[in-house]
Design a protein that fits this description.
By secondary structure, the protein is of the alpha+beta class. It has eight helices and twelve strands. The strands form three sheets. It has a six-stranded antiparallel sheet with strand order 7-8-1-2-9-10, covered by helices on one side. Strands 3-4-5-6 form a four-stranded antiparallel sheet, covered by helices on one side. It has a two-stranded antiparallel sheet with strand order 11-12.
């Protein structure tokens, strides 16, 4: 088993009802191993000589009502390989805990605070984990996904994984916060093999946000006279003729923007921008 030499942060935004994990590593497809989260339950990051069972088993214990500290204690107490494990947990109440076994390769350690557990191993130094924690504490105004991406970028700038970089992942869950309101997975993005995984993960997240993000309804633009004429004309130039509502729905479906369309009385500015770009 290869060592998942990495840095990660498991965190939550209880006001938004979101839990998540962000991770970067010199390890192929780190997103397949490290991040685990369940809406209303908590988040787990498992790494070093990773025990992947810490993910589902940790969430099961959180679901039973154990605190983050109790979950970490239970996981490592029952694991003969505990000395080479690293794990971070945040529970439903925002309590956090992190474990670094004595056999993890230097530099290895963690830091916790309200709503987050930051940890890393085979790092340049403690500054990487400090950057994760300090950035999380300093970005309370950001949505959780953007906050976690900012943490990764700061950690990399502070030194990162001493072996280099290869993959990264971002997982955020929220009750009914996923596609169509029929999933709890709000964001699940992975960069499996890339020379600049954090930059690539950020690029992919911006695409995801454009397609599936939510603009507050009060910021939508009223579709009247001139704007209705413009939208109808731009759709026609792209080969979409007919009733405005039907043509806008068809075009949005092709462009994967259907989550941002709701009738034709008003239009999301993101949709209007995409239509203008497509028909320019």
């Amino acid at each position: 088993m290869a060592s998942v030499a990495t840095y990660s942060i498991a965190a939550c935004d209880r006001a938004a009802g979101q839990w998540g994990v962000a991770v970067q590593s010199k390890f192929l497809a780190v997103g397949a191993v490290v991040p685990w989260a369940e809406a209303g339950v908590g988040a787990v990051a498992t790494q070093a000589w990773a025990n992947p069972r810490y993910g589902p088993d940790g969430l099961a214990l959180l679901r039973e009502g154990l605190s983050a500290q109790e979950v970490v204690a239970r996981l490592v107490d029952e694991d003969e390989g505990r000395d080479e494990r690293q794990v971070g947990v945040v529970d439903a109440e925002g309590r956090s805990a992190s474990w670094t076994g004595s056999g993890c390769l230097d530099w290895a350690g963690g830091r916790t605070g309200p709503g987050y557990a930051a940890q890393g191993n085979i790092l340049v130094g403690a500054s990487t984990v400090d950057a994760l924690a300090d950035t999380f504490e300093a970005t309370v105004e950001l949505p959780l996904a953007r906050r976690l991406l900012a943490c990764l970028a700061a950690a990399e700038a502070a030194g990162g994984d001493s072996r280099g970089r290869q993959s990264a992942a971002l997982l955020v869950v929220e009750r009914d916060g996923g596609y169509g309101g029929l999933s709890d997975v709000a964001v699940d993005l992975r960069v499996d093999d890339h020379p600049e995984p954090i930059e690539e993960l950020t690029r992919i997240y911006e695409l995801h946000h454009r397609l599936f993000g939510k603009t507050p309804r009060e910021e939508w633009l009223r579709v009247d006279g001139a704007l209705a004429t413009e939208i109808r004309g731009r759709l026609a130039s792209l080969g979409y003729d007919g009733e405005l509502a039907e043509t806008l729905d068809r075009w949005a479906g092709v462009e994967n923007l259907e989550e941002r369309v709701d009738g034709v009385e008003a239009i999301d500015p993101v949709v209007l921008e995409a239509l203008r770009e497509a028909s320019a």
